[in-house]
Write a structure and sequence with these properties.
This protein is α+β, with helices and mostly antiparallel strands. The chain folds into 2 domains: 74 residues; 143 residues, OmpA-like domain (60s Ribosomal Protein L30, Chain: A, 2-Layer Sandwich). It is 53% helix and 14% strand. The chain contains 4 helices and 5 strands, in the order H-E-E-H-E-H-H-E-E. A 5-stranded mixed sheet has the order 1-2-5-3-4. Strand 1 and strand 2 form a beta hairpin.
Length: 230
């Protein structure tokens, strides 16, 4: 009887140890799985952090380049605004230079020679001032300039106003640079664009009636390629 009880004790003890071992094994696997999951999450967070740092570094570098380019563009714009105020008035709202000479061509006329000798002399001086400004601007391979010569007409609703203002712009271009000008010799890195805005171009003098606005506007536009940060 005592031997049987002893056997039952050892069997129970063996079952208990087996159960405890199984519980420990399950707990070990569970804890290992949890730790492995946390380790994987931590690695993902570290990788994401590295990627964010790389992206921020790239963004900061790009912002630095953009800021440098913007500074250069603003510097150019300020240089362009510094044209001789005797002959040009800069309009900041429309970013155009208004020829500060009372041109006021006769109605329906686009002939520069219809102007007086005094006005023609002033007009010639204005052209020389424009050339001087353009030659003083940075001359680089990646930098080009557009000079837009814009003719205007009074708001008298004449059907020929668009054509008239365009022909006026051509006449001024020819007066300043000659017919079929080779600007590579006159003004390197420049292109002259002819425009006629008729009775709709801005800005406009008021009251808008002949001979008001029978005049010229000049717009200088820098065309900028890639700017190198020296």
């Amino acid at each position: 009887m005592g031997k049987r009880k002893n056997n039952l004790f050892w069997l129970s003890y063996s079952d208990l140890m087996t159960s405890l071992f199984f519980v420990m094994l399950v707990l070990f696997v569970l804890v290992f799985s949890i730790m492995q999951h946390k380790a994987n999450k931590l690695e993902e967070q570290i990788e994401q952090s590295h990627k964010i740092q790389e992206e921020l570094a790239i963004t900061n570098a790009e912002l630095t380049v953009k800021a440098f380019e913007l500074d250069k563009i603003n510097e150019l714009r300020k240089s362009i605004e510094n044209i001789d105020t005797i002959y040009f008035v800069y309009n900041k709202e429309y970013k155009k230079h208004i020829l500060n000479i009372k041109i006021q061509l006769p109605t329906n006329s686009y002939n520069i020679n219809d102007l007086s000798k005094e006005i023609l002399k002033e007009l010639d001086n204005a052209g020389q001032s424009l050339k001087k400004l353009m030659r003083s601007l940075p001359q680089q391979e990646n930098l080009k300039y557009l000079i837009v010569i814009e003719g205007q007409a009074s708001k008298d609703n004449a059907l020929i106003n668009d054509e008239l203002s365009y022909k006026r712009a051509i006449a001024l271009r020819n007066f300043w640079f000659g017919k079929n000008p080779d600007l590579n010799n006159v003004l390197p890195n420049c292109e002259v664009i002819i425009a006629g805005s008729g009775q709709y171009g801005v800005p406009r003098e008021q009251p808008d009636m002949p001979p008001a606005n029978q005049r010229f506007l000049i717009t200088i536009i820098p065309k900028i390629g890639k700017i190198e940060n020296e």
